[in-house]
Automatic annotation (TrEMBL):
Native organism taxonomy: Eukaryota, Viridiplantae, Streptophyta, Embryophyta, Tracheophyta
Domain Disease resistance N-terminal: 29-95
A GO molecular-function annotation: nucleotide binding
An example Gene Ontology biological process: defense response
Keywords: Nucleotide-binding, Plant defense, Repeat
Xref: InterPro entries: Rx_N (IPR041118)
Protein name per its UniProtKB record: Disease resistance protein RPS2
Amino acid sequence: MSVVGEAALTAFFDGLFGKLSSSDFLDFVTDKQVFEEINKWEKMLRDIRAVLDDAEGKQMKDQYVKNWLADLQDLAYDVDDILDEFATEALGRKLTSLEEPQGIKN
């Protein structure tokens, strides 16, 4: 993974954390089990982010670290796809609720 790839992976994880923390996403997640799972993901992303900078520096010398970073990038893409599906569903529900006729008030 190149230096550009390293920076992209770091920025990508920052973006994932931002998606998990967004108010629209948190408003959508109402099920307690799902919310607890999202909290676990947030913790894992923070832990991964804490190790990422050090690992990126070591990958030039260590093939194991290089492979780990490649696997981590694949995982990040999978998580991003799942979050995009959540965001699409949340937007669809929001639009549906806006289209529903509101009762006539006197």
